Amino acid sequence: MSEKVLLVDDEKDFLEAMSERMKSRDMEVTTASSAKEALEKIEYETFDAIVLDFQMPGMDGMEALKSMKTKQPESQIILLTGYATVEKTVEAMKIGAADFLEKPADLEILSQKIKQAKAEKILIVKKQQEKRVIDIIKKYGA
Amino acid sequence: MSQIKPYLENAGIKFFSRVSASISHEVKNVLAIMNENAGLLEDSVLMAQRDVPLSHARLEHIAANLRKLVQRADGIIKKMNRFAHDVDMPEETVDLYDAIYLMVDICARMIESKEIGINVIQPEHRITINTNRFYLQNLLWVCTESIMKTMNPGETIRIEIVEFNKGTEVIFSFEAMRKEGVEEIQYGKSATLLLSYLDAELIDDAVPSSIHIRWPGKTC
Known about the structure:
The complex is a heterodimer of chains A (about 140) and B (about 220).
Chain A: E1 4-8, H1 12-23, E2 28-32, H2 35-44, E3 49-53, H3 61-71, E4 77-81, H4 86-95, E5 99-102, H5 107-140
Parallel strand pairs in A: 1-2, 1-3, 3-4, 4-5
Chain B: H1 4-49, H2 56-84, E1 92-95, H3 96-106, H4 108-113, E2 117-120, E3 128-131, H5 133-148, E4 156-164, E5 167-173, H6 179-187, H7 189-197, E6 201-203, E7 210-216
């Protein structure tokens, strides 16, 4: 089954080339050119992974990451950045980033990270479902 | 003057570092797009090896993209080079429009990140002053950044240069200018020392929605 990815970057040429390459690797790709647009998209759609540019005009990567994790705590966000400082990386991981990759990124490495993110998300969703079932059993008795 | 020099130099290094970091991000972005276009070429070769015919139109499109990206990178490096040479002379004749235009260009990423527009009005004729080009750029950025902090995304600062009998002025105006931005320039250490070092004064009461940086009698 192909991975469903939301690719977020303010560089339209980057979105065009990267999404074409991801699609040719059987990924289902949706693009957003701002954090605001990405937040609107995750309002009514879920993705196996969100690949997010860390520095964009308007809402910066850290703010966007926080908002995405608030809206969809189970979302797996991979940050793409020009330069990642150790402090920023640690801060982003604490907020809930799944992974980090420096630009220019190697698509094969990014693809692996997307696959890992999808597997992680499946686990989280499965655990959430199990918890819901346990809660129902507790509520109504076995 | 000797007491303010170390502070100015330190502030200058910080300004230079911020601009360098910002520009290196611009370069990284261009490299990232080039990298994906190179990847598209590799993918085309792989497909050709699997007997999928190469599309000439597609190759031309990628080549055009790469050429556009090389031009973009060249523009970024040129402006970085111009900025790097700002420190060459302690004092020189500076075209104020050029100086403002370069400041906006080298700080473009920092300005865009706040989603603020800058409208630099070109004067009808060349207006120059004798000054230190680097610290002038620094002062222009301190003023712009201070005003930007009080603005909302989508708003625009207008910057113009005026020459009159009392001297020369760079005027920053913005319809909803708030006093916090003016106060940061008025009382902030960097702006105060830069104004003093560059023999300039801040006139903040000429028009409520504008601040004027004046060089009394300083025309060339």
